Each structure stands twice: as structure tokens, then as C-alpha cells.
Amino acid sequence: LCFAATSFLGVFASLLVLTRIDLVLRERAQYRDHTLFALVASFAALAVMLFTSPTSPLVQPRSVVGGHLIAVVTAIAFDYLTSSQHLHVLPQWVALGAVPGITVTLMTRSGLIHPPAVACAVIYLEGDPEIKNARWLF
Length: 138
Known about the structure:
Blueprint: H1 2-28, E1 30-31, E2 34-35, H2 42-52, H3 61-82, H4 92-110, H5 115-126, H6 129-132
Antiparallel strand pairs: 1-2
């Protein structure tokens, strides 16, 4: 019961802080003409993993940062291949299947496995213009 309560408090408090930061940034901060945002849906999965299994290799800082870096770079590269503003040599539906597979392959090869980062890549590719216009700020 104590572990469950601690897990609840950790997830609740961390997501509460992130949603508040997200709200403030949406209201006040502007980068060119696109709103910045701090809350990414994969943060919820990260919070659950951090507070329920903190010793797991999947939630160590090296894996969290490295996994997200691999995922976002892969997603943005594929966005350049699918976007009508850029090369547009690949249909989006192919990219939505390829990006998770390629991301997992790169994570496995580098030893930087972090499952929520794969979700982050898919969220970017499927994202609204507000998300995609952020490009490298994502």
C-alpha cells in the first residue's frame, strides 16, 4: 500500500507540474509564430515507469535522454521524407510503420532502450501542425 501511494503521489505531482508548465507556455511563450509546449503524452508513460520501477534499465537517465534523442531525430528525418514541404518521397502511412521499427532497432543497437520515446516519435509524425512546426524544439 505504501509503494502504491508513493507511486501515485510521484506520478500525480510530476504530471501536475508538467501540465502547469504546459499551460503557462501555451499562454505566454511564443517562438516565432508557434506555441511552445512542455507536455508530451509519452511523459505520462515515463512517469509511471519512473515511479513504479525506478531501478529498471529502461528508465535510467542515459536511456531516457538517449532514447528520446534517437526517436526524435528518426521522426524528424522521416518527416522530411513524407512532408509535402520537403522531399515527399515516402507516404506517411509507410513512415508511421517504419519509424517505430527503425527507432527500436537503433535503440537496441546503441543500448539506449526507452519505450515511451518510440511513442514520442509516433506522436510527432501524426502530430498537428503546432507540433510539427516546432521541428527540433520537439
